[in-house]
Amino acid sequence: MVDVLSQNEIDALLAALSSGEMDAEELKKEDTQKKVRSYDFKRAVRFSKDHIRSLTRIHENFARYLTTYFSAQLRTFVQISVVQVEQLPYDEFIRSIPKMTILNIFEAEPLKGRMVLEVHPNVAYAMLDRLLGGVGNAPTKINTLTEIETTIMERIFSRAFDSLAEAWKTVMDISPRMEAMETNPQFMQIVSPNETIALISLSTKIGDTTGMINLCIPHVVLEPIMSKLSAHQWFVSEKKSSVPEEAESLKYRISQAKLNIIAELGNSQISISEFLGLSVGDVISLNKTVETGLSIKVGDRLKFIGSPGTLKDRVAVQIDEIVSEGVEEFDE
Fold it and tell me: For this UniProt entry, what is the primary localization, expressed as one broad class (predicted)?
């Protein structure tokens, strides 16, 4: 941001120039000199601002999908949102997370390399408490997971990776697959300590419990597809998506949907005592005559009027009339 001088500072500057305390030529030389910017090789900048913006957009969708998924699984209020996306050395990430936490190590083919979804113990144990019938409170003391608790955790987070695959569809199709679950960061070494990673931090709220979910993606994993993370490439690929092809695909899937078709001869109302007194040979009067067409329903909606008959020794119905949209069935 450009600094704006106050009137007193402007007056003092003009006074110094006029008195000779400051030389205008020296000031010009300072402006023309090359400015040196310090560079920390331990914090190498591998992701441009464009890449960071793209990762932010992708994982904002990921946060929305996770919110829907966990809300359905836990049957309680869940809110997840992206707090920040930054790049830092892997060693710094390991030192920033708790000594006891939930680390979901996974791969996402065709990307090469391993990534980590780190879940703060408050969030993980609140999920576990909710899944086991509790109200979703975080424990006051964090203990080692039992075998049953580990299995439950692996199951819920393995399915959560489907949301990650859905969020990445705008860039490429990936197939995330859980490899292992760890609780001690010191036992997890997926890349060298100085390797740059993209850290996506998600603020998570489950009921009254809050915590963080961190997604760690090493630069070496994303390096082959860095060009796809540029905003220009992203928007071009979105424009290239064929709308007619999508429409045909949707039409095909709808045409393959199965619906029940029901031909009703009619209906009748009888008392419970009459129902209990029914025996073989009794006749129940329906609300329709023989001359009245059958009501043919698709799903639960009346769509056709037809006539009963047979076809090749099988019971069949012939469609005589198509019912207009919006017409409801009524008793005659």
Answer: other
